């Protein structure tokens, strides 16, 4: 009887120890699925990735991934076009679909949007990100999960989170 009790206690202990590990893995997988492939990729993985049009034609490659200093999350990338004079074209992550298997990022909007994309210049990060999202016609990641009522309100020119190029 004592041996049976020890076996049961040992089995329950192992189960109790394994449950948090399994749940953490399941939660991480769910979060990656909800945020999409872009949110699960590091800035290093994005850099050098080929960018293709909706038709699959090569546009250029990701030259930099820009992450927020506080969050560390990539907020937008710059693309170097293969056949243009304009070297750094900013694109929000929501305008790209990442495919790790092929190593490509597919532009989800018309390629013509790249021709007159906003430049950061001396704008605050918040204002620049708002202009990018408005130009490309995409909602920011945080806004996609929440229910939004009415048109988006542009941020004011106040010091905010700075972007760090990686």
Query: Uncertain spans, ≥5 residues at pLDDT below 50?
Result: 22-35, 144-150
Number of helices: 4
Average pLDDT, rounded to a whole number, is 75
Globular, elongated, flat, extended or rod-shaped: what is the shape?
elongated
SS-derived structural category: alpha+beta
Determine Rg (CA atoms, Å).
Answer: 22 Å
Percent in helix:
25-40%
The sequence of SSEs as H and E is: HHEEEEEEHHE
Describe the main β-sheet briefly. 7 strands, mixed
Strand content is 15-25%
* Total count of strands: 7
| Amino- and carboxy-terminal Cα gap | 63 Å
Q: What can you see in these coordinates?
A:
There is one protein chain. This protein is α+β, with helices and mostly antiparallel strands. It has helices at about 1-40, 45, 125-135, 140-145; strands at about 50, 60-70, 75-80, 90, 95-100, 105, 165. Strands 1, 2, 3, 4, 5, 6 and 7 form a 7-stranded mixed sheet that branches. It starts with a helix and ends with a strand.
